[in-house]
Amino acid sequence: MNIQLTDRIKQNARSFSKGQRLIAKYIEEHYDKVAFMTASKLGTTVGVSESTVVRFATEIGYSGYPALQQAMQEMIRNRLTSVQRLEITSSNIPLDRLLDSSLDQDIDIIRRTKENISHETFYDAADALTKAKKVYIIGAGSSLAIATFLAHYLSLIFDSVQLINATSEAQILQQMVHIGQEDALIGISFPRYSKKAVKALKYASDRGASVVAITDSKLSPLAAYAQHVLLAKSDMVSFVDSLVGPLALINALIVTIAIKKKAEVSKTLCDLENIWDEYGVYEKVEDKSDDR
Q1: What is the per-residue pLDDT across 12-25, written as a single tens digit (0 to 9) for each?
Q2: Which partner from 32, 99, 130, 202 sits 20 to 30 angstroms from 15, CA to CA?
Q3: What is the CATH topology of the domain spanning 115-278?
Q4: Sign of torsion, CA 78 102 215 73?
C-alpha cells in the first residue's frame, strides 16, 4: 500500500474512533477494492455511516474522501491487470450508472488537471517547442491515439514533425538517429508506463534535445529524462485509460504554440484552404435551416 497513506493512518491511529479503526483496518487489507468504492459503499461494507468515512479521510489529512480514493487509485494503477480493472468496475458500478459514472469521472479528471498544472512549466514547454527545428513525438499503447492527434496538428505548425513508430527499441532509435540540440521530443505515457517511451526520452536527452514529458506524476519514469514535465490526470475507467485530461492539455499546447507562430501558421492554413477548395477535399454542406 502507498507509504504515505500508511504513514498517515499510523500517525493518526491513536485518535481514531471505533468506526474509524474499522475503516483503517479494511483499507489496509482491501485497498485495491476501496480505491473504487464510494464513501457510502465503504461505510456499508464496514458497518459505519458515510459521514464517518468522510471524517476518516479528513482526519488523516486529505481534503475529503475523493482525495483519499484518488491516492489509492494512483498507487495501484501500475499493479492491476486489465482483467482486474474490468472486474472491479463490474463489482462497484451498476450497469445503468456506467454512462453517468464515466462522464462524471472525465469531468473530474479535467478539473483536477486544470487545478494541478503548473502554468510556468506549461509556457516554458511551449516556448521550447516553438523554437525547435524538428519535433519528434512518441506515445505507446493507448497514448498513441493522442500522440497521433498531436502530430497531425503540429504538422500544420512546423515544417518537420515525426510521429515515432514505437514498434521495437531498435526501430525507435533508428527513427531518432538524427535528433539533436535544435530538436525536441514529446513523450506521452501513463500507467502502465511504456518502457519504449522511457528509453526514447533518455536517448533524446543524451543527445541534447529539448524533452517534454506528458504524464501523470513527477514520479513517472518519463520525468527523469525531461526538462519540461506536463502533468495531466489519467484515471481508469474499467480496463480503459481515460485520456480526456491529457487530450485537453494537448489541445491547449497546440493552440499556444500556434498563437506563438501565428504569422507562419496563418499562411499555411490559407494555402491549405485554397488546396482543399481546388481539389474538393471536403464536402460542402449547405445550410437549409431557413428553407420552408
Answers
A1: 888 999 999 999 99
A2: 32
A3: Rossmann fold (3.40.50)
A4: negative
